[in-house]
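Treating backbone geometry as a discrete language has practical consequences that deserve illustration. In the encoding step, the backbone of a single protein was reduced to a row of integers, each denoting a local shape. The amino acid sequence and the backbone structure tokens for this protein are reproduced below.
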Amino acid sequence: MQAVFTDEISAVHDRIAEQIGQTQYQVWFKQGTRLAITEDHFEVAAANPFICNWIQGHFSATISEAVNTVFGRSFPLRFQIDRKLTPQQKEKPIMEHTKPQRAMNALRRTPLQAKSLHTHGQQPLKLTLDTFVVGPKNQLAYNAAQSIVREEKSPFNPLFVHGGYGVGKTHLLQGVCNAVFDARPGCRWMYLSAEDFANQYVVALKTRKLDAFRNRLRSMDVLAIDDIHFLSNKTAMQEEFLHTFNTIDLAGKQVLLASDAHPKEISQLCDKLVNRFVSGMVVRMDAPDFETRRRICTQRAEGMKLELSQEVIDYIAGSISANVRELEGALIKLAAFASLCGQPITAAVAQQVLAEHIARKDPVVHNSEIVSTTAEFFGTTVSDVYSAKKDRTISLARSFAMYLNRRFTKMSYPEIGRAMGGKNHATVILACRKVEKLLKQNDTLKWKTDNGWRNAPAKDTLDELLEKIG
């Protein structure tokens, strides 16, 4: 009996190694990690909290897929610490902590019985408001989220938060869902990405189960959709979401949305959705300031059981300013070094370990920032820049926005075109060449402002724009 499970657990190992590569497999699974199957779950035991948290956060989906492939059914995963394991100890891939016959019976259960093992209603999400570090750049969004938690009927619907990558939008949405459920246990909530919404819609359409799909989403007390900009240029799905939103809103329930851009800056988003979104509360979240970054570093390091001096925390917070994800990436790298090498993290060690991480850090500028800054500079609106209007001022602002996107982002010409209101890539190329020619000749530019016409050399115009973008 043990031999059967030895082979199958080994097969799980092989599948994981195949999916993540031998290098990562050797670091995270071969050293100090044990896999075992019990009657009703699949156990992953690690030598210390750092390794356990890392595997849970980065490889849960891979493990689940491997288990499902090998055993032919899913098992809930359970992660735990086993101090007896060491990074050098090889795993014994046998079945532990359960009687073999009971485990075999569990494997022979019908699909319906198997499903009942891990269906316990809504499961808490990973991120909570308790771990959301509040600072000047996210205070308003946090206060709005708290009002939703306190009030069963919030004064605004939807709450639409937007900003660059890694500033805490997902954290806020998941935190609200968890907090609402804690405050009102009977509350029905759902958190999903716009891509999940789209995929479920397509499946429901193909399987002729649209009514079930609609009833499930529209019966929610709180519906949180992340990355709503994914619905850009998807007319049918936008229409479906509009009806879903209207149904939830009319029932007095709450919708939360997150995007990397303001509703008016999302290209090819229908006017009805834009109007519905801006009728609620639209809040921008920016990258945290230095003091907030220090508190984030302190909190995340404590969660990783990573001991860092204030000097090291100040070094990380001062060197990385773009977003929270880069801060967490630096801390994870230090935690991995400390765990695998067994060395304390001094200031000198931190500088050495993070040298490449910090050196490769590029200034993060997003299309939304470029367009909003350019529109404000030329005295027009974001919606006009995204439009097809040929007005002299609007056309000039649009050309500079496309040029700056090409210069400061990694987007291709077609990607810039899509982000700028669905323009053809040839339009973007022509706009960039136009600006390059204006700069090369330093031609005098002329555009209309509220105070009349303004004239300025092309190079001076670009310098002023660059200063405003920062």
In short: Strands lie at 33-37, 42-46, 77-81, 159-163, 189-193, 222-226, 254-259, 281-285, 444-449, 452-457. The longest helix spans residues 49-71. The longest strand covers residues 254-259.
